[in-house]
Amino acid sequence: MILCYGCFLYLIAVYFKLTISIRLSPLLVPVEAIKTASLPLTNTTEFKVRCVEGERKALLNFKRSLRDPSDRLASWFGKECCIWKGVYCDFQTGYVISLDLNDRSNNCYWKKLGHLIPGNSTCLGGKVSPALLELRYLKYLDLGGNDFQGLATPNFFGSLEKLQYLNLSHSSLIGLPPSLGNLSNLQYLSLNTYSYPYHTVERGWATDLIWVSGLSSLKYIDLSYVNLSLVKHWFEAFNKLPSLVTLRLENSSLHYLPYSFPYRNMTSLSYLSLSRNKFGNSVLPKGLTNATTIKVLYMESSNIEGPISDVEWGKLCNLWELYLTRNKINGDISRAVEGLSSCSNNTIEVLCLGENALTGKLPNSLGHLKNLKMLEISFNMISGMIPASIEQLSGLQILGLGENQLKGALPESIFNFFELTKLRLSTNSLEGKLSQNHFARLHQLKILCLSCGRSFAVNLSDEWVPPFSLSAIELRSCSLGPKFPTWLETQKQLEVVILTNGSISDPIPPWLWTLCSQLQFLDLSDNQIGGSLPRLVNFPSTSQSWTVGFYFSYYYGIVVDLSSNRFHGSIPLNIGHVMTKLQVLDLSGNAFIGSIPYSITRVKKLLRLDLSENHLSGKIPDWWYESQQLQVIDLSGNNLSGSIPPSVCSPLSLFWLRLSQNNLSGELPKSLKNCNSLVTLDIGENKISGPTPEWLGESLLSMKKLRMTCNMIDGRIPAQPCQLSGLQILDLSHNNLTGSIPSCLGSLRALKSVKFYMWDPNYRYYSYVFTPKMDLVKKGTKMTYTNTLDQVNLIDLSCNNLHGEIPNEITGLSDLGNLNLSGNQLSGKIPKDIGSMQLLETLDLSSNHLSGSIPLSMTSITSLSHLNLSYNNLGGPIPSTNQFGTFTDPSCFEGNPELCGKPLITDCSLPRKKEMETKIEDDEHEIRLCFFVGAGVGFVVMFLATFSSLMIKKSWAYCCFHFMEEVGERIIRCCLGFMACLNRIFSLRRNLFP
Question: Of 744, 795, 800, 951, which is least packed with CB atoms within 10 Å of its CB?
Answer without folding.
Answer: 951
